[in-house]
Specification:
Layout (H helix, E strand, L loop, with lengths): L12 H19 L8 E3 L12 H9 L3 E5 L12 H8 L7 E5 L5 E6 L9 E7 L3 H10 L7 H18 L7 H10 L34 H11 L4 E4 L6 E4 L1
Parallel strand pairs: 1-2
Antiparallel strand pairs: 2-5, 3-4, 4-5, 6-7
GO molecular function: RNA endonuclease activity producing 5'-phosphomonoesters, hydrolytic mechanism; single-stranded RNA binding
InterPro entries: Endonuclease-V (IPR007581)
GO biological process, one term: DNA repair
Length: about 250
């Protein structure tokens, strides 16, 4: 893991993250040169950028490797907007591989909106990073997609999250069977369903239509809240003055 010290500033992502990426590429070249990639897919933009030089360009120049920018959201530059017209064009993308160019107000084509999967409703925004044509970048991105996100980017995200989870000792995501078991064991508190739905008492249509009254005795929800407060799960301290309170967990 690395410690990011530079603050995040929109349009300057490369200055925050690229030094660590360059270091990773150089270490790979030194230790396992046979695994050096021929091209890098970058989770970010290339020339589709405020200054025409996004993180994919920055990384490509410093490593001298072909780079492709693959972004999940449209960076609105040079007159490009995620407006109704843009959304209409997205709806016209019917099948995997369908695409349309992203032409800016200047007339330059900054990238391509690509439908990378048949069942995806959101396109990818592919742009040139370094030493590759836009046509080749789109073709390569499409060929790497088993799902919406290109597999190299998707696997990097999955494996890095798994590494962090194992390193920091956090629990992993529950399996589908565990989720069903947890839902089955979860008690139902203060249900709003009628007696017939709970399997007891009269059917709902047999109930009186008169005004409802609160049942006598303490409210079970109120009791639960009092128990939570007694256990110290949530402590509310009132300060002097009207409508002033602080919540300490």
């Amino acid at each position: 893991m690395v410690s990011l010290t530079a603050p995040y500033l929109s349009g300057f992502l490369a200055f925050r993250e690229v030094p660590f990426l360059v270091d990773a590429v150089r270490r790979l070249q030194e230790k396992q040169p046979s695994l050096m990639p021929q091209v890098l897919l970058v989770d970010g933009n290339g020339v589709l950028h405020h200054r025409g030089f996004g993180v994919a360009c920055h990384l490509g120049v410093l490593t001298d490797l072909p780079c492709v920018g693959v972004a999940k959201k449209l960076l609105q530059v040079d007159g490009l907007e995620n407006n109704a017209l843009h959304k209409d064009k997205i709806r016209l993308l019917r099948a995997r591989g369908d695409a349309f160019p992203l032409r800016g107000r200047s007339g330059a084509i900054l990238g391509v909106a690509l439908k990378s999967h048949d069942h995806s409703t959101k396109p990818l925004y592919v742009s040139v990073g370094h030493k590759i044509s836009l046509e080749a970048a789109v073709r390569l991105t499409r060929s790497c997609c088993r799902f919406r996100i290109p597999e190299p980017v998707r696997q990097a995200d999955i494996r890095s999250r798994d590494y962090i989870r194992r390193t920091l000792g956090g629990p992993g995501p529950p399996t589908p069977g565990q989720e069903r078991s947890q839902r089955a064991q979860r008690p139902e508190v203060c249900s709003t369903r009628g007696p017939a739905e709970l399997g007891q008492g009269r059917a709902p249509e047999a109930h009186s239509q008169g005004p409802r009254t609160r049942p006598e005795g303490p409210d079970p929800c109120a009791r639960a809240s009092e128990q939570d407060l007694a256990l110290g799960l949530c402590e509310l301290r009132l300060r002097p003055g009207p409508q002033q309170a602080t919540l300490r967990r």
